[in-house]
């Protein structure tokens, strides 16, 4: 009678092996899929680390010898309360993506100011940004002969910015020049003897009826970055001014190029 338990045990072993064998292809397939996904994640992680390292290296090089671009924050008190509450979260991101990033200065940004606190609150890692933040005025920070242009968005200065010179300092202003207090930054620059320029929108773009205003520094920043990378004015303007704003790149320039070495 002892044969039957042994036979039953053998049958169970056979059935167990059969089930394991039947599951084996599925298990292997699942394992291969998991291994493939793991390798993909590892590759992506290495790529991300590499990109971050390259980006950091570019930004550090720019801080040492990059074209200097300064964001003038001295007149934010002239803006409305809601305007002062809007830092430029995309500005640093634009610079990080650039092949040739600028050395960025934020001048007259006081640590006890509302704008500074909003920059810290709304921009994760702001305190670790590879930029120069100072409470000092750009006028005292840079030699006057190094300051090439005080750049406005449009319509204020008569001179269109057509070139970017590597050894000069470009001041981004004009944020308050389209508010109720007209031409504040433009007037100040002229009083200080600094040459002013606007983006060459009229020269290279067609304005549709009822265009939207864009007074943020981000379009100026992105346009200058793209122009520096591509040397293409129309491509640069298209990168900073989306069609929804009511402007379209013209097929050809409408005015002669003005060389920045010429006196106003």
TrEMBL record:
GO CC term (a single one): nucleoplasm
Bias (Basic and acidic residues): 19-37
Reaction catalyzed: guanosine(9) in tRNA + S-adenosyl-L-methionine = N(1)-methylguanosine(9) in tRNA + S-adenosyl-L-homocysteine + H(+)
Residues covered by the SAM-dependent MTase TRM10-type domain: 55-248
The protein's Enzyme Commission number: 2.1.1.221
One Gene Ontology molecular-function label: tRNA binding
Biological processes per GO annotation: tRNA N1-guanine methylation
Region (Disordered): 19-41
Keywords noted in UniProt: Methyltransferase, S-adenosyl-L-methionine, Transferase
Keyword Methyltransferase: yes
Keyword set includes Cell inner membrane: no
Name this protein carries in UniProt: tRNA (guanine(9)-N(1))-methyltransferase
Organism from which the protein derives: Sinocyclocheilus anshuiensis
Upper taxonomic lineage: Eukaryota, Metazoa, Chordata, Craniata, Vertebrata
């Amino acid at each position: 009678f002892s044969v039957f338990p042994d036979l039953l045990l053998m049958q169970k072993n056979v059935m167990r092996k059969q089930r394991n064998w039947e599951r084996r292809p599925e298990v292997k397939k699942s394992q291969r899929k998991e291994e493939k996904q793991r390798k993909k994640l590892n590759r992506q992680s290495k790529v991300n680390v590499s990109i971050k390292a390259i980006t950091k290296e570019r930004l550090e090089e720019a801080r040492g010898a990059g074209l200097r671009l300064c964001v003038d924050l001295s007149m934010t008190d002239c803006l409305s309360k809601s305007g002062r509450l809007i830092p430029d979260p995309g500005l640093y991101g634009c610079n990080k993506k650039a092949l040739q990033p600028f050395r960025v200065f934020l001048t007259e940004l006081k640590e006890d100011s509302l704008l500074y606190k909003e920059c810290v609150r709304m921009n994760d890692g702001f305190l670790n940004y590879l930029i120069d933040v100072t409470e000092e005025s750009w006028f005292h920070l840079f030699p006057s002969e190094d300051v090439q242009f005080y750049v406005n968005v449009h319509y204020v200065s008569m001179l269109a910015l057509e070139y970017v010179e590597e050894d000069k300092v470009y001041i981004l202003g004009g944020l308050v020049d389209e508010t109720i207090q007209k031409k504040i930054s433009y007037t100040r620059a002229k009083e200080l003897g600094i040459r002013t320029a606007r983006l060459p929108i009229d020269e290279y773009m067609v304005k549709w009826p009822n265009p939207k205003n864009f007074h943020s520094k981000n379009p100026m920043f992105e346009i200058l970055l793209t122009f520096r990378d591509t040397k293409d004015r129309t491509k640069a303007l298209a990168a900073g001014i989306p069609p929804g704003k009511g402007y379209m790149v013209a097929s050809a320039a409408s005015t002669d190029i003005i060389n920045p070495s010429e006196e106003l």
